[in-house]
Amino acid sequence: MIRNATPEDVPEILRLIRDLAEYERALHEVRATEEQLNAALFGPEPKVFALIAEHEGRVVGFAVWFLTFSTWLGRHGIYLEDLYVDPEMRGRGYGRLLLAELARIADERGYGRVEWAVLKWNTPSIRFYESLGARPQDEWDVYRLTGDTIGELAESAVTPATGR
After folding, report:
1. Per-residue pLDDT of the chain (164 residues; tens, 9 = 90+)
2. At the top level of CATH, which class does the domain 2-155 belong to?
3. Intra-chain end-to-end CA distance of the chain, in Å
4. Domain boundaries, the chain
5. Which residue in 84, 94, 111, 129 is the catalytic one?
6. Does residue 128 sit in helix, strand or coil?
7. Alpha helix (H) ranges present in 24-137?
8. Is 129 one of the catalytic residues?
9. Nearest to residue 121, comparing CAs of 3, 16, 26?
């Protein structure tokens, strides 16, 4: 069963995030807390959303997503931040069902894209995504500002209030 996440799912969502990070060899980078996830997913104006995959009442997978916008298409899209299914539950269709639900949401709302990133070494996931018709966008590289670099760049901003 695929359903929208509820506040009661937050501990399981954090568990799945940590499991995904461990699989991706980056558990040391997880800083998210239940409080942060609850505020982001269920606060007054949520900007991020989650789907849950259940098997016999147990949470076995999730998809976390948010809206993007394509200036070229003039339409919103979905960016899939995380998709994860417990290893013992893989091959039962839960990943496909989560992506199918995202596609349904995009189609129903007139969104132009569903996109995500996958680690280059993650060949099982790459094969899975390609089996669904997804194609890599090799002409683009992803860039990121984090931590101190955000603050350093922000300090150089010119704001109307200060004129600096």
Report:
1. 999 999 999 999 999 999 999 999 999 999 999 999 999 999 999 999 999 999 999 999 999 999 999 999 999 999 999 999 999 999 999 999 999 999 999 999 999 999 999 999 999 999 999 999 999 998 888 888 988 999 999 988 877 665 65
2. alpha beta
3. 54
4. 2-155
5. 129
6. helix
7. 34-42, 94-109, 123-131
8. yes
9. 26
